[in-house]
Structures are given as structure tokens and as C-alpha cells.
Backbone:
């Protein structure tokens, strides 16, 4: 359990940004505060792109923050921290080394004698349940076994802090659950040779199942939106009503719309005109959106579905389900409400419509609620040749977001606009144009 001792890690007002040509910096993290004491498992929960993995690298000393105070046992972190180990999502094993050789790498780097390396590597391999596989190679092992090797490699140096970056996301559901359970059992039995764990996840149930505290991150830029203490003793039961309620509460937190600041009036000018703001769009296909709406409208949901139940039914994690729901909310086809998603009247009209009417409903929603698509349509209609380079709009997006987000947003713009038959896109020319029928009608 957590102690009252000084924290292992202390982070204050951490900021991480990267310069961008001809525009302001891309901000990944901003104003992040975090402290981690001995005896606790803390989870960083949030969407992809919210800076969670970046924060892990800052804690490990592999990345220097742009600003802020980051300390390890009270001392500023100036480089890789001795006493910190990391487990990665991708296993990161050397295929030409045996299990024992992979596990012993960290000890070799520390100059530990060969006999001691072999002894400690065998202990770590036995601890994580791979005794007898010391001489096997990674290619001979399943994904779950390879991740156990990665875990043994991190534990063999007896770190004070174990960092885990989505360690179960590349595994199948059953294997991931087995490994989670084994880890918690070792932790509760005081057999893990670590003092604390800091883990990144986008799986809400995983965070509630494993962690003592959860920091929920918002995105663009990444900030700690909420900090939650998990009050349940181990072992935890997923079907317990209090467990389920906490999962519901976190879904509600993660789907709550941020409050937009109101424009301020000035005595001489009154209220300023509303600015067009271009926001990053999720990469979600129209087929997926239509399928989810049809599911919510049908039995047993009848227009309103509990997000955790929906995620379980589709075997989706929050990071996969929420972008679909956010796309529907953006288009006013659905809305989030206290951990549920419910169809609006527009969403029901879409579900009940035939193919052509669905496209018309979708086109109207795009024009009304997606400013970048409305702008592209307007420019194409006003130009004499009804054509415009996509680069123009991509550059405009980069004034509001990183190049990666701008590229993803443009992919979504192209996909949604084509489905709605608002415009065509020529990949080779990287150019938008109106359909011939649209030009004739205009």
C-alpha cells in the first residue's frame, strides 16, 4: 500500500512541445502534475495521442521535457534513470538471443558477473512462469510468452519503478487477462522486485482492475483531467456493482465535452465575431458509424446503449469505441450522456433512411457541423473550374494541429466527403473537385 514517504517521482507543470515550421509549436503535454510513491500502482488512462507514452519517457529520463520540474527521489532527472525499467507494447526482444540471454541483457549492461547474471535471469524467468524455456528463441514462443520475457527482462534488474507502456494491448483477450492476473498476484504477494508501477493504458477496465490511482488524460494537448482513487481491495471482481459503476463513471468522464470559453465583449466593439476553428477529426469510416447506429437503434438497446456493455459486446476498448461515438456526436447523430450513447432524431432518421437519403442526411450534417468540409465545398462551388488543391486545406489544418493530426483529419475529410457525394478527390493530383452531376445541377 502507498506510504507517507517522499515520492519516487515528482513532476510539476510538465510541458512537452515540438517546433513546427511556419507555425506555433505542437504541444503534446501541458501543465502536467504527477507524484508517485512507493507501494502503489498508478495508471495513466486516456486516448491515443494524449501524451501518456511521452510522459513515461520523461519519467524514465529518455526524453527531456520542454519545461517543468521532473525529479527522481528529489533529484532533477537529467538522463536515463537507474532504478527504472520499462515494459513495451511491442515486446522488443532480440530474435537471435535466447530467452535467458534476452532477460540478462540489462544485467550485462550493468557489469554484473556472468554467474550472477545467469542466476538472476533464471529467478526472473521462473517468477513470470517461463521456467524451462531459458534456451528457447522468441520465434518459438507465443505473443503472451514473449511479453513475459519482456517483463522478466525489466524485473531482473530489481528496479524501484516499473514503467509499462500498454503492455497487454498486443495480446489476445484471454492471454492479456491471464498476464494481468498473474502480475497482480505477484504484486499482492510482495514477490515482484519493484517498489511501484506506473502504467499507460487505454483500457478502462484494466485500469480499474489493476491500479490504486488512475489519472485520466484529456487530449490536444495532454493534461490530467481527473485523478481517481480505486477503493477496491484485490482481488477485484469485474461484475461487482461498485466496480461496474466506477467503469461507467470513467466512461462518463472521458466522453464529457469540454466547456468552451465564452467570447468576451469589449465596450467599443461588443462581442467579437465567432472564429472558424478546425478540430482534428477521428479516422472513422462511414460504414462503422452506420453499423454502430443500427446496433444502438436495434434490440436490446432501443436507441440508448451503455458504453461499457457496448464495448464488451463488440470486444472494443475505449480507445476504439469512443472515436466512433465522438464522430456521431460531432455530426449530431448521437450524443454521450453519463456513460451512455443515445441516438438523436437525426441519427434515427439516418438509420431508417434508404441509401440515397442516408447520403443526403450525411451531407447535410457535414456542411452544418464540420467546418473544413463546409469550406472545401464552398471553395469548389465558387471556383470557375470547381477544383482546388488539397494542400491548401491541409496547410490550413496545420495552423490548428500537428502534421500527423492534419493528415489523419484530411483522410477523414476525403472519406466522408466522398460518401456524401459532396466532392471527389484525385489522389495522384492531390486535388478536390465537384462531381460532374453537381456542376450541372449548379
Residues:
Amino acid at each position: 500500500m502507498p506510504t507517507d514517504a517522499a515520492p519516487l517521482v515528482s513532476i510539476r507543470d510538465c510541458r512537452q512541445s515540438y517546433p513546427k515550421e511556419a507555425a506555433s509549436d505542437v504541444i503534446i503535454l501541458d501543465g502536467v502534475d504527477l507524484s508517485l510513491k512507493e507501494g502503489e500502482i498508478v495508471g495513466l488512462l486516456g486516448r491515443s495521442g494524449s501524451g501518456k507514452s511521452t510522459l513515461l519517457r520523461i519519467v524514465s529520463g529518455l526524453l527531456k521535457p520542454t519545461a517543468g520540474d521532473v525529479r527522481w527521489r528529489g533529484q532533477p532527472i537529467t538522463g536515463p534513470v537507474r532504478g527504472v525499467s520499462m515494459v513495451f507494447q511491442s515486446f522488443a526482444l532480440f530474435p537471435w538471443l535466447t530467452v535467458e540471454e534476452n532477460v540478462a541483457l540489462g544485467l550485462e549492461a550493468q557489469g554484473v558477473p556472468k554467474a550472477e547474471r545467469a542466476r538472476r535471469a533464471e529467478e526472473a524467468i521462473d517468477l513470470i512462469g517461463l521456467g524451462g524455456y531459458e534456451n528457447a528463441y522468441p520465434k518459438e514462443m507465443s505473443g503472451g510468452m514473449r511479453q513475459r520475457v519482456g517483463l522478466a527482462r525489466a524485473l531482473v534488474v530489481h528496479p524501484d519503478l516499473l514503467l509499462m507502456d500498454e503492455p497487454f494491448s498486443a495480446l489476445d483477450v484471454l492471454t492479456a487477462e491471464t498476464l494481468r492476473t498473474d502480475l497482480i498476484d505477484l504484486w499482492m504477494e510482495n514477490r515482484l522486485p519493484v517498489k511501484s508501477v506506473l502504467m499507460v493504458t487505454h483500457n478502462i477496465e484494466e485500469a480499474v482492475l489493476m491500479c490504486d490511482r488512475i489519472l485520466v488524460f484529456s487530449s490536444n494537448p495532454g493534461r490530467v483531467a481527473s485523478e481517481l482513487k480505486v477503493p477496491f481491495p484485490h482481488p477485484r471482481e469485474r461484475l461487482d456493482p461498485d466496480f461496474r459503476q466506477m467503469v461507467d463513471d470513467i466512461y462518463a468522464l472521458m466522453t464529457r465535452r469540454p466547456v468552451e470559453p465564452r467570447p468576451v465583449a469589449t465596450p467599443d466593439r461588443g462581442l467579437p465575431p465567432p472564429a472558424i476553428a478546425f478540430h482534428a477529426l477521428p479516422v472513422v469510416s462511414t460504414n462503422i458509424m452506420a453499423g454502430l447506429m443500427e446496433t444502438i437503434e436495434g434490440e436490446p438497446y432501443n436507441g440508448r446503449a451503455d458504453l461499457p456493455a457496448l464495448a464488451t459486446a463488440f470486444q472494443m476498448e475505449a480507445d476504439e469505441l469512443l472515436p466512433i461515438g465522438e464522430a456521431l456526436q460531432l455530426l449530431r447523430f448521437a450524443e454521450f450522456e453519463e456513460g451512455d450513447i443515445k441516438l438523436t432524431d437525426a441519427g434515427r432518421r439516418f438509420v431508417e433512411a434508404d441509401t440515397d437519403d442516408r447520403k443526403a442526411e450525411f451531407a447535410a450534417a457535414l456542411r452544418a457541423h464540420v467546418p473544413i468540409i463546409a469550406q472545401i465545398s464552398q471553395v469548389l462551388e465558387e471556383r470557375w473550374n470547381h477544383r482546388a488543391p488539397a494542400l491548401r486545406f491541409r496547410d490550413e489544418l496545420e495552423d490548428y494541429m500537428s502534421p500527423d493530426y492534419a493528415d489523419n483529419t484530411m483522410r477523414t475529410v476525403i472519406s466522408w466527403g466522398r460518401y456524401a457525394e459532396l466532392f471527389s478527390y484525385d489522389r495522384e493530383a492531390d486535388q478536390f473537385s465537384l462531381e460532374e452531376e453537381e456542376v450541372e445541377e449548379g
Q: What stands out?
A: The radius of gyration is 25 Å.
